[in-house]
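User: what does the whole thing look like in 3D?
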Amino acid sequence: MRLKERLLEFSYLLASSKKYKKLKKSAQRLLNDPNAYEKKYFDYFMIFLVLSTIMILILEIKNDLPRWVYIYEAFAVFIFIIEWLCRLWVASDAHIDIIEMQESAEYDKLNLTTWQLLKPALFKKLAFIFSPMSIIDLLAILPSFRALRFLRFLLLFRLFKVFRYTENINYLLRVFIEKRFEFYSLIILFGFMVFFASTVIYIFEGTGANPNINNFYDAIYWAVVTITTVGFGDISPVTVEGRFVTIFLIIGGVTSISFMTSIITTSMTEKLELIKTNQVFQELNKLKSFIVVCGFGKMGKVLSEELQLSGEKVVIIDPDMHEVIEAQKKGFLALHADASDIDLLNELRLENRVKYLVALTNDDAINLSIVLSVKTINRDIVVYSRAVEKNARNKLLIAGAKEVVFPYESAAIAAYEHLGQPVAFSAINEILHEYIEPVIEEVEITKEMHLDNVVLKKLGIKKHRLKLLGVVRQSENNKFYFHPKKDRFEIKEGDILIIIGGYEDIAAFRLHLHEGRS
Amino acid sequence: MTEIILFGYSKSAQEIARLLKQNERSFLILTTDKQKTQMAISEGFDAHWINYNDDDELIKYGIGESVKILFCVSENYNKNLFVTLSAKNLDPSLYILSLAADEAQEKKMLLAGANKNINPYTVGANRIFRLIKKPVVYRVLDEILYHKNNIKIAEITIPKNSYLIGQPLFNAHIEQRYDLMVLGIQDGKNPSDFRFHTYRIRKKIQESDMLVVIGEEKNIEKFKKELIK
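Assistant: Here's the predicted 3D structure for the full assembly of 747 residues, as structure tokens:
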């Protein structure tokens, strides 16, 4: 009875401990989360251990190895054991199973024995121990013990451990599981042909006509060697009947092998796409901040290229594979997916990483759906959208888009302005471009600059060969002061200077503001 | 007398027509589709159906005479090309604008004689880009460009007898004297030579040069008046 109480007490203690939870979570991340960046290094390390111990196994056959090699191997096995124990640990939450069992028992007013209490937790752990991957792990460890030395060849099972650390190989191996019906029928056909051919050859040549075929095993061996088109030639038919059978066996073999190859290659290419998407996700997980552009049409292309030129990381989502390939060719991270899919957006972990998302598909309904999905996940993400029909604008705004661009309207305004003042208009357009000098930039006066109440003249704008268009004062509801007087206007914290000049000059000016007064 | 003609009644044409009407400009809409003509008329625009193959019809509506600007913005690119070519033939000084969204079409339009093509998708994409990257700058420039506050952008051509002629731009003290900002200067003899007024500029002001200035309306007017003194 006392054991049970202690067990329960301990379980509750663990369940309430934040530290324990955190520790377990980080172990879980390291071992099982394919998106965790630490996992990559862990995997490399484990693969190295596996391969190096296998090397030792091979070298040991003909050479005497120095002592440190065996110490190293012991170390590797030690790591394997710890790894396996950790996996056992994170496979399930035993303490929670125990608590749940106890609570449901209390609810039904039952009094459980210690064994009954432990049963579900233990069963879960056992299920892990007997899972295929765990068995491979165990086979890689167990033969290292002296008592089990004769099982040394089982150490080769360590090689299978490598699969554990390489996600992509797993994807390819899954081909065999998914296409199992095709493989079953092929194997049955194969087996039938081998059995038929070996029986025939055994009947005609097994009785002494062929000195190489002494038993049925020889006949089967010959049939397999022939049907797979390997054809060693150590056993070859000598009678007319035997050769006749061989002809059919070879034709059947070539056909079924080409059939099998085509099954494997087609399904592997299917899987390759999955692997690619997986890689894009892995790349994505490394990014600290990026902008999502949904739809790689004409607008999407122009926008993405401009954003990339200005040094932003852009991730493109498009349901059309052609556009995705084009985007990838242009060096973007592109996903072949439906951007209005909430699960996908969740998987992208937009929070804290994405400030802007742009919906630019050529269908207002899809754009609307994207805006709504993003807003469901996180209201803080700023969403801009395109309207294909003008009357969709209001709906998109209601859905939560910060601004909706109707390209024809923008173009009409641009055309009209161009007519009135073509030189002025193209001048403004030019300075707005990131890559043609001069450029126009916002320079915010931050607290660290200690520039509160400093006269404009002292900032050194002229010295840096820049022009000041004006100042936007955030503290006065973004009031715009045009061309303020240099010797009278005082800068306030939070002001935004709008500056025109060369790229490098502006960069130097920024640096000057940051360093000048600290 | 009409000054502006819109050929076609596409989405872009509708936007342009609305804008022109807002600014009380006189314009005509010509379409090759009777339904579109009706649509435009029901919106309150002056619209006509034409046979675009017929140069006489183009002349009838004022091309080659009073019309100075032609928007070739119908949905059919080939018709746009055709009309651009015929109109340019009738009046080489006609200013033709198109709104092709496709790069290939854009090139063809320019080759056919259009003076400028504005790509709606590029403009739209640029707009979003600026909203993301430079929201404050964009707002301010938007206000200046579209007259949402008292600050205007203006193009001022230097008249023959201006006192500024012969002075280097950086030494002309326009900015301080009139409280204006000089954004840049376009050479009068070579319109493609536009220079921004950064401190590296070394240029003497010449007759018929064009200054692009930003400032309050009254200051711009004052500057214009005093130029001749």
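In plain terms: The mean pLDDT of chain A is 84. Chain A has four domains: 2-165, 180-270, 287-405, 437-516.
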